[in-house]
């Protein structure tokens, strides 16, 4: 039975993390759009791949929006994981130790 409970809490975490990440991304996108309008006096490019959008504007928008939305999603997912760990006493299965501890990594092959 413990496995079923773990599976259910893992599914709840996945859904909670997804909703948090999407919500954070939507909020950041709204803020980015407002900031872009304030800084440039025009709307951000709806499609940076459109040839009518200058390459400088397209690259800047892609870099700024991609970075900020990615960071917001990551922070929201981390917050969801923290809440899950605080509630259950352990990290969700998807985030169990993933071998990032360099001291425990296998020695490099020459």
Per-chain topology:
Elements: H1 2-40, H2 55-88
Helix pairs in contact: 1-2
Summary of the model, kept short:
This protein is an all-alpha fold. It has helices at 2-40, 55-88.
Mean pLDDT: 84
Task: Give helix and strand order, one letter per element, not per position.
Answer: HH
Largest sheet: none
Distance between the termini: 47 Å
Q: Strand tally, please?
A: 0
Beta percentage is under 5%
Q: Write down the overall geometry.
A: elongated
Structural class label: mainly alpha
**Helix content percent band:** 55-70%
Any low-confidence stretches, pLDDT <50, length ≥5? Answer: none
Number of domain modules: 1
Radius of gyration over alpha carbons?
A: 20 Å
| Helical run tally | 2
Transmembrane segments: 12-28, 58-76
Keywords: Membrane, Transmembrane, Transmembrane helix
Pfam families: DUF4235
Protein name: DUF4235 domain-containing protein
Question: Which tags fit this structure?
Answer:
110 residues; mainly alpha; 66% helix; 0% strand; elongated
Q: Would you mind describing this structure in some detail?
A:
This protein has 110 residues and is mainly α. The protein has one domain (8-91). The chain is built from two helices and no strands. Helix 1 (2-40) packs antiparallel against helix 2 (55-88). The chain is elongated, with a radius of gyration of 20 Å.
């Amino acid at each position: 039975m413990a496995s079923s409970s773990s599976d259910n809490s893992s599914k709840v975490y996945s859904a909670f993390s997804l909703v948090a990440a999407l919500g954070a991304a939507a909020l950041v996108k709204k803020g980015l759009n407002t900031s872009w309008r304030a800084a440039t006096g025009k709307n951000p490019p709806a499609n940076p791949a459109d040839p009518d959008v200058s390459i400088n504007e397209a690259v800047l928008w892609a870099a700024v929006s991609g970075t900020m939305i990615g960071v917001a999603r990551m922070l929201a997912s981390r917050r969801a994981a923290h809440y899950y760990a605080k509630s259950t006493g352990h990290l969700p299965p998807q985030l169990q130790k993933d071998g990032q501890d360099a001291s425990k990594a296998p020695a490099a092959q020459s």
